[in-house]
Every structure is written in C-alpha cells, then in structure tokens.
Amino acid sequence: LPEDRPDIETVLEPGELITAVQLPPPNPAERSTYRKVRDRSSYAFALVSVAAALELERDAVVGARLALGGVAPKPWRARRAEEALRGQRATEANFLAAADAELADARPLAGNAFKVELARRTLAAVLGQLTEGGRP
Length: 136
Known about the structure:
Elements: E1 30-37, E2 48-57, E3 60-69, E4 76-77, H1 79-85, H2 92-103, H3 114-130
Helix pairs in contact: 1-2, 2-3
C-alpha cells in the first residue's frame, strides 16, 4: 500500500483549509490522458482508473508519469511501470511488460482480484492510445 498509513489522507490540522493548488505548466512535448473504468453511469466510483503522461522521442519513451486509481486506498503512482518504459520502444508488448512490472507484487483483497488484470489491460490501452499520433 502507499506509505505506512493509508488510512490518513492528508496532513491538514483541524481548522486548516486548502485554498489553492499550483501546478507547473504542461510540457509541450508530453501527451497525457485519463481513463476511468466503471460498471455503471459516469458518477460511479472507478473500478480502475489510469492517469498517464508520456514524452516520446521518435518511437521511444523518454519520460513517463503514471498513476492508478481504484486499486488502493488512494491514487497509486506506478513508478515501476514508469521505469520499465523509459528508453523502450512504444509498443503494446512493452506497455504490457511495464504493467506487469507494476502489478507483479499486487495482493488484491477478496473479491477484487479481477482488478489486477483490469488495471493491466487499462494501463496498456491508455499508453497505446497516447502513442497513436493524436491526443485521446
């Protein structure tokens, strides 16, 4: 699980309030997208979600930022998959291998084992979509 205490979502003290969030400007060489897989309408919780940003040089991945949702108590940064992709050609086989590297140690709860394969396929599909030449 992320961190040692997944039951704690923030470090805000009583009475504190987040009033703004500053994000760096997007990298113009990077493509990004988000996909939410759900079993009902758009307001349903995600079974699995994937946020992905890729920077490509020719057909090779030079940068990747990936996160999974719906698979842990809070969003899960997919650092193993990011590392597995860097320097590799942007192919379906490499996307699946990166997903496998990320999910190799997955220990799903009872009734959630299907999410491992769903996360694997969704991550590979999103990466494939980002490399097809257009923005999703």
